[in-house]
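User: tokens in, sequence out, please.
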């Protein structure tokens, strides 16, 4: 919370921190893994290069097939 205040110039209370953490912790494991971190960090401005787009695609394409299957989407979004 101190880091957020120092970096963004705005204080966050514990409830806000927990809400933010829960939104990023997609699989509800109690930890934020790399995939969850990347999804949370992505936005239109950071996905402008082919290299970044390729990296984002690879995150979804877990088996490296070159295609994103329904199962991979479900796995990433913790639906099944």
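Assistant: Sequence out:
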């Amino acid at each position: 919370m101190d880091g957020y205040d120092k970096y963004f110039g705005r204080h966050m209370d514990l409830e806000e921190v927990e809400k933010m953490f829960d939104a990023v912790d997609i699989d509800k494991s109690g930890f934020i893994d790399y995939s969850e971190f990347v999804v949370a960090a992505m936005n239109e401005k950071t996905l402008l290069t082919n290299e970044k787009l390729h990296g984002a695609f690879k995150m979804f394409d877990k088996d490296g097939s070159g295609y994103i299957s329904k199962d991979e989407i479900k796995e990433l979004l913790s639906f099944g």
